[in-house]
Specification:
The complex is a heterodimer of chains A (about 375) and B (about 190). By secondary structure, chain A is α+β, with helices and mostly antiparallel strands. Chain A contains 15 helices and eight strands. Classes of the chains: A alpha+beta (about 375), B mainly alpha (about 190).
């Protein structure tokens, strides 16, 4: 049979922003998927070279605009490592709480967008956004902004958690815990959802490791790797949690991992609230003359909602000489070809939705 | 840019005459040409003041936005369409995936140089009258990426913009306010 080449995107309702795919199909079967990226490239790494250390978080936050807090934290942690600043103990707990809340919001978005991609299952999209708004409201209470927080400072935070935050957060998390069970019962009894996810887009363990993918897609392929556990930072050592691992490595596993991680994050936040000490959580002011960091090279690795981010930074006076970002989405996108090869063209978007890509992070 | 359909007695009378001729011809030859007749009918309604108001009223209350997001602001755009804000109550029905059915293009996010031809093409595919809302700092003026080498400093350098929304990103409520402003503009209540 002849091979047809079709173009999808860059503006397409199911490509999560502006991703262009050139797909070779033989009849209905995918032979090759070639992603064309760069439609959102704006040169964050180059811009960072002309900014002072604490002017950069607003730029790194806009890399992954579904989970900005995590990138904020990853960058500030790199600066802390370069300057040799220790984070205050209460600030560590507050950071863990905020990061896990961000992870919940991001995964809710991921599930909603995935269901939107696979044949307009709009109900779950609406549910996901409604529940995500509740978590965003909590983050807004804590940081003062709805989407881009810029809440991390060297050694702490801009502001401590507001009074009464704990009770409100626990109440809202109980609600989300209940809702997650509803999601599960709704989706896993839905024959359309199950037919489009079970056994579709399989990525076996060896291929997952060879491609270097991280985060939920890797754990759904049966690899027990989580930076929070393998290379712990902040107070993740003291908290009790286990990385979620599934072995079926299909779209369903990648969806199920997100559900399980939301539950685990809720547990983590509850425990962090219980163990959180009293005290000071404020960081240093922005306009601080830092010590000379010339030629100091740091490499900081963080577990973002979508995978492992590595910040590689070479210091200069008051600003980075070079900032290099290993974006998890860019590397996860490489797995799309492997996953969808041999499958149907109609399942391409279900597979892509399960990868949960953010194009701003891919293009940088 | 809003099209102005001014009352023109002569134009309406001419269109009516032509439509009557078409109807008589179709009665004679037993061959109906519905498209030509409807075209004449729409010209009559365009030229009549009361019908003009009707068209404007219906246009104002059913502006269909395009499902088209670029970057961060697209997340807030999705939130705008979801349950909490419920954009449908003011006539922004569904987000349509094809530009041919849309009235409003909401440019949400930064515009890179490689994206400009695609956006222009989408705009040209939209049916007239068409409106553009620049949503967020990046689409308004380049925003934080002002110094970047790959960014267009505002979509208004490429296409005509009707309403600008400030914020990084603006809240969904803010977009709602902007679109209500656009409705006022389309309805002719404010100059712009």
């Amino acid at each position: 049979m002849t091979i047809t080449r079709i173009n999808i995107g860059p503006v397409h309702p199911s490509t999560h922003g502006v991703l262009r795919l050139v797909v070779d199909i033989e009849g209905d079967t995918i032979v090759k998927v070639e992603p064309h990226i760069g439609y959102l490239h704006r040169g964050v790494e180059k811009l960072a070279e002309t900014r002072m250390y604490m002017q950069i978080p607003p730029y790194t936050e806009k890399l992954d605009y579904v989970a900005p807090m995590s990138y904020d934290d990853a960058y500030v942690a790199a600066v802390e490592a370069a300057l040799g600043v220790d984070v205050k103990e209460r600030a560590q707990y507050v950071r863990v709480i905020l990061l896990e809340l961000q992870r919940i919001a991001s995964h809710l978005f991921g599930i909603g967008a995935m269901c939107n991609d696979m044949g307009q299952m709009f109900t779950v999209f609406m549910w996901g956004f409604k529940d995500r708004d509740i978590v965003l409201k909590l983050l807004e209470d804590a940081t003062g902004s709805r989407m881009f927080y810029v809440n991390m400072r060297l050694g702490g935070l801009v502001r401590d958690l507001p009074p009464g935050f704990e009770d409100e957060a626990l109440e809202k998390l109980d609600y989300i815990d209940r809702r997650i069970k509803e999601y599960e019962s709704y989706l896993e009894k839905n024959s359309i959802f199950m037919e489009r996810t079970k056994g579709i887009g399989v990525l076996d363990t060896e291929a997952a490791i060879n491609l270097g993918i991280t985060g939920p897609p890797l754990r759904a392929s049966g690899v027990d790797y989580d930076v929070r556990k393998n290379n712990p930072y902040y107070v993740y050592e003291k908290l009790h949690f286990s990385p979620m691992v599934l072995y079926s490595s299909d779209n369903f596993a990648r969806y199920k991992i997100k559900i399980m991680e939301i539950k685990e994050s809720i547990r983590l936040v509850r425990e962090a609230f219980r163990l959180m000490p009293e005290g000071d959580a404020l960081g240093m002011p922005v306009k601080l003359r830092s010590p000379d960091t010339k030629n100091r090279i740091v490499r900081v690795s963080r577990e973002l909602p979508r995978g492992e981010c590595v910040m590689y930074m070479v210091g200069d006076q008051q600003k980075p000489y070079r900032l290099s970002i290993r974006s998890p989405n860019f590397i996860n996108l490489a797995a799309l070809d492997e996953m969808s090869r041999g499958g149907r063209i109609a399942d391409l978007f279900a597979t892509m939705g399960s990868l949960d890509l953010v194009m701003g992070c891919v293009d940088r | 840019m809003a099209e102005t359909n001014q009352y023109d007695e002569q134009r309406a009378a001419n269109a009516k005459k032509e439509m009557d001729a078409l109807v008589y011809e179709s009665l004679k030859t037993h061959e109906v040409k519905p498209n030509a007749i409807f075209a004449k009918l729409s010209e009559i309604t365009k030229a009549m003041p009361i019908a003009n108001k009707m068209v404007n009223w219906s246009r104002v209350n059913s502006l269909w936005p395009m499902q088209f997001g670029l970057a961060c602001c697209a997340i807030e755009l999705m939130d705008f369409g979801s349950a909490r804000i419920d954009s449908e109550r003011k006539g922004y029905l569904f987000f349509r995936a094809t530009p041919r059915q849309c009235d409003v293009m909401i440019v949400a996010g930064w515009v890179t140089k490689s994206m400009v031809p695609e956006i222009k093409r989408l705009y040209e595919q939209m049916s007239k009258p068409r409106y553009i809302v620049a949503f967020g700092e990046c689409a308004t003026c380049g925003g934080p990426w002002w110094e970047s080498y790959n960014i267009v400093k505002g979509i208004d350098q490429v296409l005509p913009v009707d309403v600008f929304v400030a914020g990084c990103p603006p809240k969904p409520e803010n977009l709602f306010a902007a679109l209500m402003k656009l409705q006022a503009k389309v309805g002719g209540n404010i100059e712009g």
